[in-house]
Amino acid sequence: MSDLPRRAVTRSAKLATLPLGFAGRAALGLGKRIGGKSAEIVAEEIQQRTAEQIFKVLGELKGGAMKLGQALSIFEAALPAEIVGPYRATLTRLQDAAPPLPTSAVHKVLTEQLGPNWRDHFLSFDDQPTAAASIGQVHKAVWHDGREAAVKIQYPGAGKALLGDFAQLARLGKLFGALLPGLDIKAVLAELRERIAEELDYLREAEAQHAFALEFHNDPDFHVPDVIAANEMVLVTEWMDGTPLSRIITGGTKDERDHAGLLFVRFLFCSPARVGMLHADPHPGNFRMLPNGKLGILDFGAVNRMPDGYPMVFGQLTRIFNQGDMGTVVNGLRDEGFIRPGIEIDHDALRGFLAPYVEPTAVEEFTFSREWLQDQFASVTDLRPTNVVRQLNLPVSYVLIHRVHAAGVGVLCQLGATARFRDEVVRWVPGFTDDTGDTDDTEALAAT
User: What share of the chain is helix, strand, coil (3-state, %, to 5)?
Assistant: First the structure.
């Protein structure tokens, strides 16, 4: 892991560059105002440079900083490509090419966690990892009963580094306030810190994965490998072969991509109703297409526990948006905390921003594409204070739901999938269909 900042002093120094850099840019702005530039132009320049600095530093760090960057993807989409381009590239490098632990370190962790006779648990164990990510890596093995297994090992010190990031990031509230004045960054950080602590506990992940495996056992659409054994830092599950979704994206036929996209959406929408949990890390590396046509799902470290399924208001606001009543939508979003007190939102701008998330539910069949997504976000890619994205807040209860939907739309656009996605929302999201009889939407929303 030599090419990534790991030591606490290094990570603190990286994060500490943010407020110093911002102060310097503010002083530069004052000089320009004295020199005759308008206050609005200077403000936009400072905001843009602040964004550049924030995304640059977050992109260079693993752990909590990277998780925050992922959670803020709703705002990242509204910032100019020249700002977030290097950041996205760094995130991709971190996610897809995390350097593996040396074999000696792997053996040390297994000895500490499973005892000096850890090899007795396995008929064979491959020292070369098959995958590496932000907090751990996976090795292929054969369990002592003959089952092929995936052994996930947590990096030593990963927890301390992750949680340490949040202590540093909590000091940057004013910076994010300058860039995104509608965002309650402290609440977002608190929620993410709690979720990260959960991801570090492999026993908790094992519990979630086992629940999914039981629910989807012999399911016609999905397969989840069951858990074999676990403790806090080592997780052993059944091995699952299949074609990575990333390969379907780059080389699949149109029919294969459409089928994968439909199952992907069905899984994300049906899980809260069927399992009481939402898989909260839906990037292509966590999904496989199996030879029998099923979608295989991996990595349950990040889940949003939703025992009552999707919130009723979520489906109601989606339906009301499609009916064109933006006044009720704004009131509903304000009640849910997406619009903070004192913030006024332009209805047309809000409609343009929400369209990528809602438009696919308005028609019987929809085709996702990169071009469509770029067109949708074209109207919000500026840093002016009136930009609707800068005025929105991300409520704590929706942090992971947003992560899933934002990432999900991106995956579907990469697939270029065409399917009857609306049917899945009708089936699994309460409130989307009008089952309130003659009660109008405003009264139904207020009752909810």
Answer: 60, 10, 30
